């Protein structure tokens, strides 16, 4: 009987220690979380990587990188790593980036970079279409065509991405014709090693900059990570702060 009683006492002691340990850990997490939340709630607008060293400009933009709008003074550069079939990239384009391109034209340099993800079956094809158009001086027009008619090639329905390369490529050729490209040259360039090398270099630069998903946006080398619910307001505020420096 005393032996059994001792076993019970030992087990109770272990359980109590475990419970106390859990309580201490939970309290610590809550305290630390509260501090982080408090500090974060004090932010205004967007956090463009304040306190972190910027990604070097030569990583974010190469001499042959495509540009949508360029500022003569080069004061503010926005670099976006994107996947044309990414639904979030399309939402950013429709609700933010297209407006920013227009509203800040001539005041910022806007550099889109390719970062097609494996989860998007036509991301590579669309990137090749954009780069093939760039070889004929029509990147901007193809960039807009791909996003403006996103539902026409990127999706089957509201919940399913398109994976039919033949149909997508036919759409891309249609855009090429509409924006005045030499379609035969466009088709050849789409499958050329030169175009693929450009995309691969963009991806490598993105990885070097810490990009793991799309869209990932940098403002003057700092990653844009909004801390408020209004992404557009945070983005514009960050641009205006950089322009005012």
Automatic annotation (TrEMBL):
Name of the molecule in the record: Protein-disulfide isomerase
UniProt keyword Oxidoreductase present: yes
InterPro entries linked to this entry: Thioredoxin-like_fold, Thioredoxin-like_sf, Thioredoxin_domain
Lineage summary: Bacteria, Bacillati, Actinomycetota, Actinomycetes, Pseudonocardiales
Keywords carried by this UniProt record: Disulfide bond, Isomerase, Membrane, Oxidoreductase, Redox-active center, Signal, Transmembrane, Transmembrane helix
Domain Thioredoxin: 46-244
Single annotated GO MF: isomerase activity
Record field: transmembrane: 18-38
Family: Belongs to the thioredoxin family. DsbA subfamily.
Pfam families: Thioredoxin_4 (PF13462)
